[in-house]
Amino acid sequence: MSDTGVSPGSSRKTATGSTTLTKACVLLRAVATIFPTGGSLSHIAREVGMNTATAHRLLTALSNEGLLTFDPYAKTYHIGFDLLRMAESAQEVAPDLRLRHALQPVLGRIAARTEDYTYLSIRANRDAVCIDVAEGTYPVTANTLVAGARRPLGIGAAAVALLAVLPEREVKRVMELNAPRYPRYSGITREEVEQWLHQARSLRGRSILSK
Q1: pTM (two decimals)
Q2: Alpha carbon distances (Å) from 180 to 43, 63, 175, 183
Q3: Tens-of-pLDDT digits for all 211 residues of the chain?
Q4: N or C: which end of the chain has fewer CB within 10 A?
């Protein structure tokens, strides 16, 4: 292992440059292209041939700047919502951000009326992605989501509601893929997700979770 924190003999595309910026860019690119549903510290570091201490320091910095997000339950890193904001500034081809802008007033009114945090989430393949958060005035909150945070479809009220409106064949496919990920979230099982899905469908797509 070299003193730059990069394995010199790695056959993968590695952070061969000596600058911190180069290494950070390699990590950012790896998360975006190789780990679309999130990657753990060890997996990302191994993929780019970087030692875990260096990778952890840079991934934390990228998360603090909003370029990545970190899921504290699954211990995985994902692309941050700030990158989508940058993409929108560069070219107006970000429909998710346009949706966010259009619904911000609605989100704000719901938060004001309920005095609680209100979230806007969309589907992204087999995940739900929170694209906006409106803060409530209630002094106590169980807020665990920030803009850009991902959860597997089926984990959390928004992700269950999104799953509930999909065709049955697609629901089965998504749940089959996500089943190994569910236990990372407080030990939730596929059977529990199926129960929540049934409840959401009985409420015509609304989901209320108490766990």
Answers
A1: 0.63
A2: 17, 25, 9, 7
A3: 333 344 333 334 445 455 899 999 999 999 988 877 889 999 999 999 999 999 999 999 999 999 999 999 999 999 888 887 776 665 554 677 788 889 999 999 999 999 888 999 999 889 999 989 998 887 666 667 888 888 999 999 999 999 999 999 999 999 999 999 999 999 999 999 999 999 999 887 666 665 5
A4: C
Residues 120 and 101 reside in one and the same domain: yes
Do 55 and 70 share a domain, yes or no? yes
Inter-residue contact 150 to 128 (CB < 8 Å): yes
Residue 6 lies in a domain: no
- Both 136 and 109 in one domain: the answer is yes
Q: Which domain holds residue 28?
A: 20-79
CA 48 remoteness from chain centre: 21
CA neighbor of 125 nearest in space, from 181, 185, 195:
181
Residues 203 and 163 in one domain: yes
